Amino acid sequence: MKKRIEIKEFNNYNSNKSVKTEICYNFLNKDKLYQSFSTKTATFPYFKDQDLSYEIDISKRNLSAIKGITSFKQYFPNSKSTVYRILLYGDDKKVYINELYSGDDKIYNSYNIEFDEAPITLSYKKDDADAIILADKNKMLIWRTNFSPYTIPNVPVITSICMNDGVLFCTIKEPAFKVWYATDLDAENVGNISNNSGYISLNDDLGDAKKILAFDEDVYIFREYGISKINYLQKEITVSQVYTSNSRILENTVSVCGNLIVFMTFDGIYTFNGTRVSKTDINISNLLDGINQKATASSISHYYFLALRLKYDDNASTDLDNENYVNNSILVIDTFDLSFHIMRGIDVLQFHPFKTDTFEKLLVCCNTKNCNKLLEITYDCSNTEKIYKRWQSAALTERDNNKLITNLTVTASKNVTFTFDYDTDHSISFVTYREGLNEFNFRFRCNQLKLQISSSVNKAVVDKVAVEYYDY
């Protein structure tokens, strides 16, 4: 009897449908397969009112890699102007500055700022002036509008920092069960007990304080095994437990994304809305490579970007194969519907969301390939290098019996490869020869059958796929 398998959706990793996704990367897999997000060299406008753009040039400086990135906005009341600065931390331990809308693509080590490691940063307001804090294991630097940057020595090693409702909070490396605060936003008081500063002790079993952030007018501490909330009322500060986790939270994956906080533990991806923690249905456990302690994340709009290590058993090669990479993939989650897809072949060291009054970008610095460039996440792949994309189904048929496969029809871009993997070590491939409807006729027998779709064509699209066969 002749039968037909139709694949009309490609986003069913976790469904009970007859055709299930087994692996997919560099394709946006929803009702169709589309080109996913990718990366390109970051560009910035020379001037606000011009379309001409530039790439930040580090070639004339004595550095070969960008190891950290942040940004800083300063409003100057006298001139009624706002200056946007991008700050890059180089492998020469210096902090370089590029000023947006200045017509200059070069970077400068203004004020001779140096750190021993990529600094923790926070932009905030102090006395109605824009300010930024940069801190590493040895010192803290504060830069305020109309002032030169100045250094505060002998402060605790800060691991994360935030501000909320006029109070500065930070977690520290040792002792990690303390959270410091300064009620006057004076970062110089961190580490010193005074009328305006002090610390909160976390005397419970949730583990060390790893990351602190402000969310929905509250402050939350992400611990090794849970979440605590800081309650601040009339200068009285207390802490309450919000969530206890059975698996360790990876603190660098914690990111505010719209009306949610998204984070990863050793056993999955979770969301937190300020009241309730929910485990998502996103299951990539079969792809995880190791414990992913170097995983890192950030967000832009309603998309959560998680850089991590994944393993792929498909023998496909990428530019990272011979590199000493930290991460090799980005998991992109749409928090509107918790759909997701995977970007493969990008070794992210750090993300940084950058927003001005004219544009918003998610900037990226890399660990290996492109470590000497500042990249950005893009959905417009027209100018990016060709990226290998792949989707693979699980078993196409329910029963393990003999089948005669006879026909494949697809609606797709030109030069997309469709490969049937059948039985133990057999395969047969077809390449689309035109845009739109393509039909292939053939005959082969098999018991087990899978389908993989691959392409290196930018903006490749795959829509309807149908397989016809006889079941015996």
Task: Describe this protein's structure.
- The protein has about 475 residues and is mostly beta strands.
- It folds into 2 domains: about 1-35 and about 390-470, Jelly Rolls (Sandwich), CATH 2.60.120; about 40-390, Methylamine Dehydrogenase, Chain H, CATH 2.130.10.
- The chain has no helices and 40 strands.
- It has strands spanning about 1-5, 20-25, 25-30, 35, 40, 45, 55, 65-75, 80-90, 95-100, 120-125, 130-135, 140-145, 150-155, 160-165, 165-170, 180, 195-200, 210-215, 220-225, 225-235, 235-245, 250-255, 260-265, 270, 275-280, 295-300, 305-310, 330-335, 340-345, 350-355, 360-365, 375-380, 390-395, 405-410, 415-420, 425-430, 435-445, 450-455, 460-470.
- The strands form 11 sheets. Strands 2-34-39-36-37 form a 5-stranded antiparallel β-sheet, with no helix packed on it.
- Strand 25 and strand 26 (about 275-280) form a beta hairpin.
- The radius of gyration is 26 Å and the shape is globular.
- About 35% of the residues are buried.
Main attributes?
mainly beta, four-stranded antiparallel beta sheet, globular, single chain, 472 residues, 2 domains, five-stranded antiparallel beta sheet, Jelly Rolls, Methylamine Dehydrogenase, Chain H
